[in-house]
Design goal:
four-stranded antiparallel sheet; 2 domains; about 450 residues; eight-stranded mixed sheet; about 35% helix; Alpha-Beta Plaits; Aminopeptidase; 19 strands; alpha+beta
């Protein structure tokens, strides 16, 4: 019997309420990339928190959708935990790839809910809220001082959150922070516990030529934006995907003994064939396997081309020299690589190779970070996961929320509870109802375990 068995029984007894509330939340579109439904979704979250008896306040952001915060105090613990989540979702396109009545249906089929945001991250919002409600209704008081922050721009890099955080650090100060986001490990169906962040530096390359598309007869006399873009991109990495920008690896985090212990444990318990099967590939890039594959995924800097646009791609042929070409990239920066310095190095690299005319449009990137597995926030989550899921979770090196940490240092951990194959960021995003109810219990037990930490 768990020390929270009475709370778990309450959660089971009220499961239908939690399911219906998640359906209501999923049915409200909230697409930050397209500016759709964000205010309406924030209002809905605020109303739900008030109906659940939780402290909640809305704050306006300059240039962005509202942030919701809350603070519930207790006499049971001196610890304060910050629960981070986000109500915005990824664009649902391609719409014709969705089954079960589209991205906003929240339809339940064979024990799975389908809809954009059901896993990422609307179920995470409600897991925190419903866990707190259950603890308050059953025990009369929370086991930890609890703060909430729920934002609406996570999916586009929290572009406007930083300035607000800088002015409101008192609302966010805590002893530990965590986010309930993402699916369980594909191979074991156990939660991943991520102890840090690879920062994401978004860069869009823009190459311009003539003032309009010109007949391709004139190609010998014209600049060619697409060829320039292709050549510029080809200077960024070698055949082994090592980034060729001068000084890019300066200060890169060096793995410690505890990191190798965590990696070895993951190698022993996670079947990489399951990951390859989920992705539909026979082997990883460059034949990577074993512990090398885990090290690369968690600690290696990356330079990914997410998309290229230029010229005519419709039916048939069109004899033009396009006047513009664009490429979107995301650079993953492991701990100790500074995003602001990385921007300068990328600009210098293009200039050095004769591409001074290529414009780079950056989106704000927050610093990467990493904490030790020995941190109380990490230990509380590991203990809670072990009880709820019956085995120790899969602990990873890096990946979590960084914007807040730029202004308020809080040991931060990312974990999740969604079912493997949840299709985050893809059509038919889904969530097992069983995993959802278990996730609420997981959130409650994390609060309980962290409240007991010295």
């Amino acid at each position: 019997m768990s020390e929270l068995q009475d709370v778990f029984d309450y959660i089971d007894a009220n499961a239908q309420e939690y399911i219906e509330d998640l359906q209501t939340l999923v049915r409200q579109p909230s697409i930050s990339a397209q500016g759709i439904g964000l205010r309406e979704c924030a209002d809905l979250v605020l109303d739900m928190m008030h109906r659940d008896g939780l402290d909640a306040h809305m704050h306006e952001l300059d240039g962005g959708p509202p942030v919701i915060t809350g603070h519930i105090t207790t006499t049971q613990s001196k610890k304060t935990m910050l629960a981070y989540s986000h109500y915005d979702v990824q664009p649902p396109e391609p719409l014709d790839a969705w089954t079960h009545d589209g991205p906003w249906s929240a339809k339940i089929v064979d024990g799975y809910m389908y809809g954009r945001g059901c896993s990422d991250n609307k179920s995470g919002i409600l897991a925190f809220n419903k866990a707190a409600k259950a603890l308050l209704n059953v025990r009369g008081e929370l086991p930890v001082n609890l703060k909430f922050i729920i934002e609406g721009e996570e999916e586009i890099g929290s572009l406007n959150l930083g300035p607000w955080v800088e002015k409101n650090t008192d609302l966010l100060e805590a002893d530990g922070m965590h986010c309930l986001d993402g699916p369980n490990d594909t191979s074991t169906d156990l939660p991943d516990v991520d102890l840090g962040l690879k920062s994401v530096l978004f860069a869009e390359f823009v190459v311009r030529g003539a003032n309009e598309d010109i007949h391709s007869l004139n190609f010998p006399l014209l600049p060619s934006p697409i060829w320039d873009l292709v050549k510029a991109l080809n200077t960024l990495i070698d055949d082994n995907r090592r980034i060729l920008i001068d000084g890019w690896y300066d200060g890169l985090y060096e793995l410690q003994d505890e990191d190798y212990e965590i990696l070895q444990d993951k190698l022993d318990r996670v079947d990489l064939d399951d990951m390859r099967a989920e992705w539909g590939i026979d082997e990883f890039a460059m034949g990577r396997d074993g512990i090398d594959a885990h090290i690369a995924r968690h600690y290696e800097p990356t330079a990914n081309i997410a998309g290229i646009v230029g010229g005519y791609t419709g039916p048939g042929s069109k004899t033009i020299v396009p006047n513009e070409a664009r490429a979107k990239m995301d650079f993953r920066l492991p701990p100790n690589i500074n995003p602001d310095e990385a921007k300068k190095k990328l600009r210098a690299h293009l200039d050095k190779h004769g591409f001074e005319h290529i414009e780079i449009q950056f989106k704000t990137a927050e610093p990467p970070y990493k904490i030790s597995v020995k941190e109380p926030m990490a230990q509380a989550i590991i203990k809670a996961a072990t009880e709820i899921f019956g085995q120790a979770p899969i602990v990873n090196g890096v990946s979590a929320e960084g914007t807040i940490l730029k202004h308020v240092w809080i040991p931060c951990v990312l974990t999740g509870f969604a079912s493997p194959g949840a299709n985050l960021h893809a059509p038919d995003e889904n969530l097992s109802i069983e995993h959802y109810i278990r996730g609420i219990k997981y959130a409650a037990l994390i609060m309980y375990e962290f409240g007991k930490m010295d």
